[in-house]
């Protein structure tokens, strides 16, 4: 693997070399750029000022700042903060820098045992990865964390007669309606 200094001359060199040959992911060239310029600046001071129980760990200030700088949507920020605080409070006595992949797997296993939804588990994974990879600058530290399988169950099928009772449309002999 070749490494080049992260500067404008090398950007141009890389783009000229790979133009028309390969797609270049610029995420690592510009790590501090906001995720979405159209998102309004969020105000998450409510999370900073809220009163919490004495033995409750707050989300680190660097985490909150990175959410604001990257202009994450307010609902995403709220979800990430909630999920990450649940994670760090599960390991209340340990420093965040000392936690490893096995600790994260154990926490995710606890979520599965608590019968949390796949969506919640994915949000927890995203919030944890955000801290270690974006806030702490450790790219792809937890790339091998397993995500829950997607639900691919068949949608509930109704018999045709049942559909007619649910549908307010008049019954017609035209078979092109559906």
Descriptive report:
This protein has a domain of 101 residues: Tyrosine recombinase, N-terminal domain (DNA polymerase, domain 1, Orthogonal Bundle), CATH 1.10.150.130. Helix 4 packs across helix 6. With 178 residues, the chain is mainly alpha-helical.
Q: Briefly note the CATH topology name of the domain at 39-139.
A: DNA polymerase, domain 1
How many β-strands, per DSSP?
0
The top level CATH class name of the domain at 39-139: Mainly Alpha
Helix content: 40-55%
The CATH homologous superfamily of the domain at 39-139 is termed Tyrosine recombinase, N-terminal domain
Roughly how many Å is the radius of gyration?
Answer: 23 Å
Looking at the overall shape, the CATH architecture of the domain at 39-139 is Orthogonal Bundle
The global form is globular
Give the helices and strands as they follow along the chain. Answer: HHHHHHH
What structural class do helix, strand and pairing data support? mainly alpha
Number of helices: 7
End-to-end span in angstroms? 56 Å
Give average pLDDT, whole number: 79
How much strand? under 5%
